[in-house]
Amino acid sequence: MTAGNHPKGGAAPTYHDDLAIVRSEIDKCMKCGNCMAVCPVYSVDKNEAAVTRSKIAVADAVLDGRLSLDDPDVYTMAFNCLVCKSCMTNCPTQVSFDRIAIALRAALVRKNGLPWLKKMIFSTLKNPRLFNTAMKAGAAMQGVVFKGDRRIKAISPRSPFALVGGSLGFDAGRKMPELTVTPLRDRVAEVIKPAEVKMKVAFFTGDSLNYFYPDAGLDLIEVLTENGVEVHIPKGQSCCGIPVLVHGDIDTARSLARNNLDQFDATGCEYLITGCGSCGGAWQHDYVEIMAGDPVYRAKAEYWSKRTFDISTFLTQVLRFRQPKGVVDKVVTYHDSCHLKKTMKVASEPREILKSIPGVTFKEMAAPDTCCGSGGSFVLTHYDTSASLGRSKAQDINQTGAGTVATGCPACMMQLLDNLSRYGQQQEVTHYISLLAESYRKEKQA
Amino acid sequence: MLDKLVVQQLQEAVGNHNVLTSKMDMVSYSYDATADMPRELPDVVVLPTSAEMVQQVVQIARAHGLAIYPRGAGSNLSGGTIPVKKGIVLSFQRMNKILDIDTANLTATVQPGVVIGDLNAAIAKHGLIYPPDPGTVATATMGGSCAENSGGLRGLKYGVTKNYIMGMEVVLANGEKVRFGGKTVKNVTAYDFTNLFVGSEGTLGITTEITCKLIPAPKFRRAMMGIFQTLEDAGNAVAGIIAAKVIPATLEIMDNMTIRTVEDFAHIGLPVQAKALLLCEVDGMSQDLVDSEAEAVIAVLGRNNCEYKAASSDAERDQLWAARRNALPALASLNNTCIVEDATVPRSRITEMLVACEAIAEKYQVTIGTFGHAGDGNMHPTILFDKYDKEKTAQVHLAVDEIFATAIALGGTLSGEHGIGMAKMKYLKSELNQSGLNLIRTVKEALDPDYLLNPGKMLAVPEVVA
Q1: Please, are residues A411 and A84 in contact by the beta-carbon 8 Å criterion?
Q2: Is B342 within the bounds of a domain?
Q3: B23 and A94 in contact by Cβ < 8 A?
Q4: Which end of chain B is more exposed for a tag (fewer CB within 10 A), N or C?
């Protein structure tokens, strides 16, 4: 049986604190197996334990005492999932498997604690200033371990490290975005005003745009200001918390959520903009769920839940963005990031933006919403499965003949960068917003 | 716990990676898609990738007296793959290669783990289809659907699995491998073994290769829907369509309970007071033919007091199909347990069957929504209940007994497409009598005297053997 946990500060427990709370979700699963048709991990592993209905059966067995949280096989199978939510789009009884997965992982972490490496990394996340210092130190040091590829702002492991890291996919062929010495939030003012202010929004950068893809972050800000939007970027914002939440570290996730909710409340803005499906999903859904028992923060989470928009939705549905005129002569395909499409339900908007850019020829790839295999840190912990999915995504991209792959999530950008460099045709990987920014810039040059 | 020696022998036969023994893995193979069934942990799961491996596994199982449960995707609805007597689950998930697509002979040869939908995706570029389409085409395997002789929505016009299987390779309980049938349309060499093994539910042999028939994909189709105020009118419309010499690709019916539930669930604008809904689709190789069949169907609908709509585009077709597509998800969302039965009656008796299902729901105070394949009489009374409520569960079991008794009284059968497995074993005698049960046992014991293959399914294991 699983002992429930009582969150601090008089808050009522949620499924994050007690696995028994997801019992009704577990009961909704008919074991029909429709999840098998779309589960990316199952497509590689081809055994029942990989697939959603089995994970639900195991959670059920844990609740009944037929399986134990101490069982290392339960731990392994619970974490052998990308939390891509593809199964949820194909589930006839609409089981919220994300809740079951997180509840099970949280129960495992309560029972067994976090592995030391995760504990160390997650504890620095809780302290944004410390994390910032660590990431900058990492950026300064990366030249020792990695060699750079200036053309695509990517790095690869140098030889002795590549040898050691080979089994984890850190071989010399691995491409990763370089860590930036000056993160996005250190490059810009806390409030950026356009000449004429039509609207004010707060921008949640997330860590990936801040540390790995600051240029995409700058492009997003530029697109907003080009459209007369004043952008607030609270310096004290931290990681959205999804990386720790999916690892079952609920305390850290709640602590990050509280900080972010306070930081954004202080902006006085009415809209919150994200450029990453995982971050946006956190604000739209997960904060409400993890704060459901918290008398103070629940209301704050609900407030922002309704006011959070992916930049593409904001541009196409709230703002009616200015049609770009600069010609961007590129053949572009679009990869649907799982969390952007399956959590935030954003799929047509980025395509609408791409198709609005003069010169862009849009080519749809086969199965654009099939997971690229990133799954945040899944790529680190399950490299073989991840690479197998990445390769098949690269092949679908190759088929289109497009020279540019746009997507809406920095984690997907990293995965596409690595897999296109291995199995692709040197296609450019970009955030879709960067192509719109490029068009606006070209318009001015003309 | 299984003897370490057995595990070692299995690992030598199929490779360490293809033998699973952890308790977590056993839990993962303890169920299939059937509700309200006992579950049991196997001793070991083996995932072979060749017929030779399967032969070796059979020899090991024989030597140690272990049962073998062949398994595809585990999406069956008869409890057919649950390892009730423990032993070896033999999963074909990794034996999933399409071996040959022969466009000259219109056949495909596949390993048993190939998913039906994947086969159809592979042959689509040749303008061909493999028609049997159980609701789970995207997951169900060719091996599993052969074992269960699966049907689907297109049964009326295109038949079911057995009409498409031309040849097989089977590993028998004695470890021998046999091949029969093949790519020829005509083949009367010896007994018709294909029709013996298709639908044998894994109790007679283990399929290791399948050669199936493919047909040209119909190029045109048209869908229409009729909404009726009485079940009688709907029944008359079905009879009228057949009388008009039209064999639709699909002819689906849905009762009031299902209509109401779908509307609550999906808000697609169905009139909730309607007593029945018919969804009909005609298809064919020429536009003229399809149009004339569609006109004939519309004329029949018009004569039978219904409100009807005909789709004039793919988007409209999709809208008409939304009702049928949502039937099972909507019903299943009503409670935590959902039993889908497949009692089947002659086409001319479907109105009586639907009326009887409503009366049974009322009599036992249980929730039953009935939808199904009106064209072939294959009904799906779907019963929703709370598995934690023991009293209600007992009422559900009585209702199910009466549904099957009714189907047989109407000249029908226990199972149109799901099979017997464990779920309907106890009703077999009511349809086949003692002589029929004796015949099943004679066939079983001739091929598998030790009850090694899928024991406890279709017929009970005699105590002397157990």
Answers
A1: no
A2: yes
A3: no
A4: N
Which CATH number belongs to the domain containing residue A61 in this structure? 1.10.1060.10
B288-310 pLDDT tens trace: 999 999 999 999 999 999 999 99
Dist CA B17 CA B2 (whole Å): 17
Q: Considering B409, B424, B440, which residue would you say is the last residue of a domain? A: B409
Last residue of a domain, one of A318, A351, A383: A318
Residue whose token pair is 């389409």: B133
CB spacing of B23 vs A71 below 8 angstroms: yes
Q: Are A48 and B25 a contacting pair at CB < 8 A? A: yes
Average pLDDT over residues A21-37: 95
pTM for the full predicted model: 0.93
Q: Which of A37, A47, A92 sits opposite B329 (nearest CB)?
A: A92
* Pair (B293, B398) in one structural domain: yes
**In angstroms, rounded to a whole number, what is the distance separating the alpha carbons of residues B324 and A317?**
33
Whether residue B368 sits in one domain with residue B283: yes
The pair of structure tokens assigned to B125 is: 């570029």
**CB–CB contact A37 B20 (8 Å):** no
Mutate to test the interface with A, among B19, B23, B24 (most CBs of A within 10 A): B24
DSSP string, B263-331: HHHH-----TT-SEEEEEEEEES-HHHHHHHHHHHHHHHHHTTEEEEE--SHHHHHHHHHHHHTHHHHH
pLDDT 10s digits, B437-452: 999 999 999 999 999 9
N- to C-terminal Cα separation, chain B: 19
Count structural domains, chain B: 3
- With 0-12 CB in 10 A as exposed, 13-18 as middle and 19+ as buried, what is B105? middle
Say how many domains are in chain A.
Answer: 4
| Domain-ending residue, one of B41, B62, B91 | B91
